[in-house]
Prior knowledge:
This protein is about 5% helix and about 50% strand. By secondary structure, it is mostly beta strands. It folds into two domains: about 1-180, Immunoglobulin-like (Sandwich), CATH 2.60.40; about 190-280, Immunoglobulin-like (Sandwich), CATH 2.60.40.2550. A hairpin with a 4-residue loop joins strand 16 (about 225-230) and strand 17 (about 235-245). The protein is elongated, with a radius of gyration of 23 Å. The two termini are about 40 Å apart. Mean pLDDT is about 80; it is low at about 1-20 and about 165-170.
Amino acid sequence: MKAKLFTLVLAIVVMAAGLSYGQSLSLESTTGLWHNQPDSINADSMVVFSLRLTVDGNNHTGITNGFRVYSPDAATWTTTVPDTNSIGLDAWFDLVFSMNTFSVDGVASDTVGFGGASLFASGIPANTDEVAYTITIGPLSNADHGKTICLDSSWYEPTGVWKWAGPDATPSWDGPHCFTVVDEASDVVADGNGLPTSFSLSQNYPNPFNPTTNISFDLPKKSDVVLTIYNVTGQKVTEISDSYDAGSHTINWDASNNASGIYFYKLNAGDFTDTKKMMLIK
């Protein structure tokens, strides 16, 4: 009953405002990054996503902002916690402001939502441009090295509104944002000349991808390299072979002609062999 009342009141308030809506949300920063790399996060750490809220020249008297944290290859974490920065959200929404959580156990997919409605208060002030929300997940596990964590917008209860509130609200979201979990102990150490001291195959980036992705590897010496890509049934899809000097290298794979699904890539360089998994989503 409470959820239905919130939905009804929020809809009435938003429609009665008669304003031109313009909201956007973006990922401002992420803590727990591996070596400050924007696409990788440390295993065995807490991760905080900070989200910036930007509105146009009008007040906004109703919001429902939903977000989903998920792992396409089954990485896990202990908990997901939403919070707000101290920019006045509670005061701006005098009717109701709430943070909702759904399935926040770090298994498969966790959803959090920020909802607010105002009768007499101004709502979000015009021209607001602030870091408004944080979503904290973790700790991540070393056992999930090479797996992927993603943050995206989401439909969520109780209002059942996709992304944000309001019949005319079509704000932008700059996601999804995906990160590879990296075990600090697996980091390749460079020698005095800046060259890797061991062979290494990195998790592809981006992952999931569509239709191209980068596959990187490190060589401590000049080597003949064979990179083979297989589909989930074990059928060979692509093979790339060449000789590479010592150092870090990246191969770009274009999967435009391949179907969505899970793929495996295997690197052979001298006596070194390693295989990793990636996901193509079209």
